[in-house]
Predict the structure of Aspartate aminotransferase family protein.
Amino acid sequence: PTKALQDLDAAHHWHPFSDMKSLNKEGSRVIIRADGVWLTDSEGNRILDGMAGLWCVQVGHGRKEIADAVYRQMNELAYYNTFFKTTHPPVIALSEKLAKLAPDHINTVFYCSSGSEANDTVFRMVRTYWDKMGKPDKKVIIGRWNGYHGSTLAGTSLGGMKGMHAQGDLPVPGVHHIDQPYWFGEGHEMSPDEFGVHAARKLEQAIDEIGEDKIAAFIAEPIQGAGGVIIPPETYWPEIRRILKERDILFVSDEVICGFGRLGEWFGSTHYGMEADLMPIAKGLTSGYLPMGGVMVSDRVAEGLMLAGEEFYHGYTYSGHPACAAAALANLEIIEREGLVERVKSDIGPYLKERWLKLGDHPLVGEARMTGLVGALELVPDKKNPHKPFREVGAAGVICRDTSFGNGMVMRAVRDSMIISPPLVLTHEEADFLVATVEKTLDDTYRTLMR
Ligand code: PLP
């Protein structure tokens, strides 16, 4: 029974990113099964997974093919490490596959178990790279306010979540943050195009202030996900590209959300015409079936760091785990065979976007935006004055999120932005259900707020 599960859960399970005091009162949501884009909870309700778990279940839930591949691998070689020049067939095959999928200048991957570990790895890689290049002063890494790069010390530090920084006295020294390209929330006094250039030039200003000779890298998500699906104005990435071309710093494209088809390309940086020196990956690599992450490394960094003649003293017990590698291979095979990346670009992506953008007409919505299969709605208290936030930021978002769940769909709230990132296998009918449910949810939320 649900209540018994909730009580046991509350007694012993500390949930990530959860207010445990209110959880203990309300009880957690118990999900027991999933298939395609549908979750089933302990009460037998079917709920559309509008977030693909945590932005990761690209191929949908319940793919027996992945479970079978993992089962076969576990029977053959469940675990062995990849330290000290050891390897095994699944990690060899996966590395070759990833090198083929990545842009031509990226041919190497270092493995870990999550996006956070990938960014910890990045942190050490970029500093060590410059050390090997004879420029040990190049240490500062520039990230962006409201960016998200994970929960470890380096991940939290590189990210720009002030609430997270406050817990643990972070960021660690040597990290600098610049503004995010959030036109709706912070830039609407300019046109989007003007603001895109303005926001990008914050990077140039930071480089000038700190000194290029002290900067190791700039890290950014192609689209900030956990920060609220901040889709930058079209002028943003071209201006960043110009700046990076003129300056000798590494560019880290955090592909943990935007990789593996989310934006209709294999990698988000290619969607925006950016050439990354390093790409942290995780989530969609295995569609979340098993935990796996990595850092994809350009030939430039590989030649400078990996082949420098001294080992990189870094690695995890589960780096290149055979069962996880088998899951990743089976997952990538499904993405390729079913043409899911192309589907996001030219079929389900545009289909959903057309309908999603119309939700911008709702009296509660100040802006609707979507790229590929990731989108946001900005809830506002006064549509005539759309950039003015709610008095109590985040409260409307929570009501809308919980109402959505009750209506049969998972939608995430970031402040008062409602976020979706559904599995890439979403059908047209499911997209129609998604939009209809969001519409009903907005109506219900509006009525609650007007009360
Ligand atoms: N980077 C980005 C862009 C993310 O969105 C996330 C997680 O949401 C991470 C890194 C951290 O990944 P993980 O939760 O697997 O550690």
